[in-house]
Structure prediction request, 372 residues.
Amino acid sequence: MFVTPCPPTTSEGLRVAVKDVLDMRGEVTTCGSRALAATAPAKDDAEVVRRLRTAGCALVGRTSLHELAYGVTGVNAWSGTPINPYYPQLIPGGSSSGSAAAVAAGLVDFAIGTDTGGSIRLPAACCGVVGLKPTFGRVSRVGAVPAQSSLDCVGPFARSVAMIEQAMAIIAPDWFTFAPPSARVGWVDAQSDPALSRRLRQVVGRYFEAVPLPLTGLADAMDAGLTIIGRETFAAFGKLLQSNLLGLDVHQRLSRAAEITDEDIAQAEGVRARFTAQVDAALEHVEALAMPALPRIPPTLHEAADPAQVVQLTANCRPFNLSGHPALVLPMGEHQGRPIALQLVGRRGEDERLCALARDIDLFLPETINDR
Prediction:
C-alpha cells in the first residue's frame, strides 16, 4: 500500500497525502527506511504540514517513497512499492512515488512530495499527473528530512494545473494569482529520444511560439547535481551504513557517496554557478524553457531492476535542482503505450507565472484513457 493512514482528523476540505520525509506531530518520520523506523516521533509538524492543517485540509495519509528519497525508481522492498495506477507494469518513479500514485489513483486531491533531483517531476511523468518543483527556497523545508539541503524543494502533485496553484497558495504564503502571459518559449532538445522529442515539440507548437534554444550545460549540470546530492545525502544518512538495515541499492549509493572529495564538490559548485547563469540568460529571451520531462519513456519494473542503470532518467530534471529554477511537468500523451510528459522551466521566483503559462494546455489525464 502506498498510503499509510494518519490518525483521523476532523478537518474538512481538500484531501491531501504527505510524503514520509515531512514531520507530522506524534508520528515517526521513517523516510521509507527500516533503519529509521525506531526513531522518536516528531514533536512538531513540519511547516508545510502546519499550513495544510491551518487551511483545513484533510490529511489522509503519509506516502511511501524510494528509501531515504535516494533513488529514482520508487521501488522499496521495506515499505512497499506503490503501484503505478494506470501503468502497473511501469515504475512509479522516485523518490516521491507514493505521492504521485495517490494522486493518479484519485485517493487525494493533491499530494506533497519533495524534489532533490527530479523526485517530484519523474514520478509525475511516470504516473501521468502534474508535478511542480518550486523555486529553491520558495516553500519552507522546516521539519523536512534531511534538514539541510542545497537542492531539495517541497512541492505538490495534482491532476490539474489549477489544483497545483491551489496547493501552492496553501503551502507558499506569498503565492498570488497571475494572468497567463503571452508566450514565447525556448525548445530544448536535450539528449532525449528523437521520436519522443519530435512528438512533444509538436505539442508545444500548438500552444506557444517555440524557438530552438540550445542549453549546452545540461550534461555537466546533471553530473554536478549527482555529486552534490551524494555528498549531502551521505552527510545526513551515512551513519546508517553501519546499521545493516538499508536496502541494497541505497547502501551501495551511500557507500559510493562516501568517496566524494572536497575537490569534487568545488568543481560541482563551479558548474552550478555557470549553469545557473546560463539558464538565467536563456530566460531573458523567452517566457520558459520547454523540453521532454524524461529523456526516454519510463521503464518497466523489470527493466529497472538495477537502479544504477536508470539514474539517467533524471537527465532533464536534475539540472534545475542545481540551478534552483521552478519546473513543472505536464502529462501529454503516450508513446509506445507508455506515458510521456513535458517539462516547462521558468525564471527563479516566478513560479506563479510558470503555472499560469501552463493553465490552458490540454492534459492527457487517466480518465481519458480507455480500456486500461
Remarks:
- The longest strand covers residues 327-335.
- Residues 7-11, 368-372 have pLDDT under 50 and may be disordered.
- DSSP finds ten helices and eleven strands in the chain.
- The radius of gyration is 19 Å.
